[in-house]
Amino acid sequence: MPRRRSDAEAVLDSSEASLLDIVDNVLNKGVVLSGDLTIALAQVDLVYARLSVLLCAADRVLPNEDPDFIERHHARRRRRAAVRLRAARVGGTGQK
Amino acid sequence: MTPSLTYVYCLVRSPKAPATGAVRGPMPGARGVRVLQAGPDTWAIVSSVPAREYDEAMLASGLQNIDWVGRRAMAHETVVEHFLTAPAVLPLQLFTLFTSDERALEYVAQEWRRIDRILTRFDRQLEWGLRLSFDERAARQAVEDSHRSRRTRRGGEAESGAAYLARKRDLFDVTRVQLAAARTAADRLYRAMSREATEARRRRSTEQATPGSRLLLDAAFLVPARGAGAFRSALRQQARRLSGSGLVVSLTGPWPPYNFIDPPRPRRAASKKRR
């Protein structure tokens, strides 16, 4: 069930940023200085498309968290998905 | 000794060589962070990384692995963010690698005019990201809730035909009227916040932010480092004016000015031959 929100709820959490934002910025927007090793752009596009699917912009991680952040990020997503699944089942049989 | 490559995170403008003592999170496999002079008042922030962990084959396979990329993206970002207090920071693309320090400096020298111009534009400026999304699910839920509470007030009687139609109409309004109002609010918010910034960029994406929620504004603002407080309070004021349920504003930053590397496009109406 979606979290209920008050009118025009403003989330002003400037210290947080989603992992997708960070990957998008560093991979696609930094200045390109033609290095000695150049990444084939097609590969970058491929990984970026997959990242967009895998990471939901609503899942937020702190930039300075410890190195296990990705594991915990995935664990959070799995937990949330499990909760949603349970809620859907209850909702399906529990009406009326 | 194993062969190593020079990994460049960013270029920093500062009269003195920036301190690297407290820098956290260099690239996996790196031995600390070093500073190279790359031009007048300009410094390259680099690490030596083992060549066999960052050669083309490793990058090609690593780029298919989200954890591998994510970890390195975070390390890159963490190092760049450390230098946000410098007068200007120019972030480089992830995996900018050279066979030696000398080669890295050679490439910077080749591109010096472009780099110098960008660093001058970025002088004491930082980026902030602003998003406005419309959560249709929350807005529909609000309609359902208000109708249910009306029924409860009347003693919990069964929903009448008229009440049913009113509820359906209000739910229909969420996708029509409320969404249109939310789009207008997004345009207004962008215009208002642009006035508080040195430069503004808006990304035109109408994709869904999360299931049931639409991203109506995805914008970046270049803001004077000293003006961050004023920018935030202006946003708070604007956010208060937003009415209606389901509107969610989020601000992230400060970021290195990733979205402002390309110079601004000359404005059509007001362009009077700049430069």
Mind explaining what this structure looks like?
The complex is a heterodimer of chains A (96) and B (275). In chain A, 52% of the residues lie in helices and 6% in strands. Chain A contains 3 helices and 3 strands. In chain A, strands 2-3 form a two-stranded antiparallel ribbon. In chain A, helix 1 packs antiparallel against helix 2 (41-54). Residues 1-16, 40-47, 52-74 and 80-96 of chain A have low confidence and may be disordered. In chain B, a hairpin with a 2-residue loop joins strand 2 (34-39) and strand 3. In chain B, helix 5 crosses helix 6 (161-194). Chain B is elongated, with a radius of gyration of 25 Å. Classes of the chains: A mainly alpha (96), B alpha+beta (275). The interface between A and B is large, with 50 and 77 residues. Strand 1 (10-11) of chain A pairs parallel with strand 10 (247-255) of chain B.
Secondary structure elements and pairings:
The complex is a heterodimer of chains A (96) and B (275).
Chain A: E1 10-11, E2 17-18, H1 19-28, H2 41-54, E3 60-61, H3 69-94
Antiparallel strand pairs in A: 2-3
Helix pairs in contact in A: 1-2
Chain B: E1 4-13, E2 34-39, E3 42-50, H1 56-62, H2 66-82, E4 88-91, E5 97-98, H3 101-110, H4 112-121, E6 125-135, H5 136-153, H6 161-194, E7 199-202, E8 208-210, E9 213-224, H7 228-241, E10 247-255
Antiparallel strand pairs in B: 1-3, 1-4, 1-5, 2-3, 6-9, 6-10, 7-9, 8-9
Helix pairs in contact in B: 5-6
Short description:
The complex is a heterodimer of chains A (96) and B (275). Chain A has 96 residues and is mainly alpha-helical.
